[in-house]
Amino acid sequence: MPDTDKSARIYRVLGADELRRSKCGREAFRSKPRHPIKLVLDRVSQNYNIGAIFRLCDAMLVEELIVCGADVNLRNRKFVQAARGTQFWVPWSQAGSAADVVTRLKADGYQIAIAELAAGSVPPEQYMPRAPVCLVMGAEFDGVSPAVMEMADIALEIPMFGMANSINVATAAAVILYHLCRQKTGDQ
After folding, report:
1. Closest Cα partner for 37 from 131, 155, 176?
2. What's the predicted TM-score (pTM) here?
3. Roughly how many angstroms between the first and final C-alpha of the chain, as a whole number?
4. DSSP letter string, 74-125
5. 131 Cβ neighbours under 8 A, 6+ residues apart
6. For the chain (length 188 residues), average pLDDT per consecutive 10?
7. Can the peptide bond before residue 123 be classed as cis, meaning omega within 30 degrees of 0?
8. DSSP code, position 162
């Protein structure tokens, strides 16, 4: 039974030295196993969102981030503020078309999951991924492109309980990736 007496616990913020102690060295980090997830950004163009997603991919040890239909400006102030240096640690690439990338990944055996409010979409906690997984996040205003939607094996939605019908793309990626990384993928 959890201790519910809050007066018995004392919390304090960990300092930078304490946080660094739990990290492995740079060379060991490069060989650390990653989750079998490729995150494809389909025309996501706002620098802050792209930077925040880099940081998220680092936190979740995503296999690769692929930015499609937008240029990544590694010197953009908003990007740099959001990414906080993770662009140097996250395996990533750029491509012109998300549809071309998804076509290739599907042929390579990736299960294609899209984040979209669509007929038949399910909440992330109801999805049992089969590794490897390609998660596609759509543009801030237009969502996932129709060509990519046609190739999807599953559509994931984050239930909206308030008046809005959507949340920020980086926030949505965080919710879904957290669920994917917590669930067993493949025959592990």
Report:
1. 131
2. 0.84
3. 31
4. TT-HHHHHHHTTGGGTS-EEEES-HHHHHHHHHHTT-EEEEE---TT-B-GG
5. 36, 111, 185, 186, 187, 188
6. 65 73 66 87 93 94 94 86 87 95 97 92 91 92 93 94 88 94 60
7. no
8. S
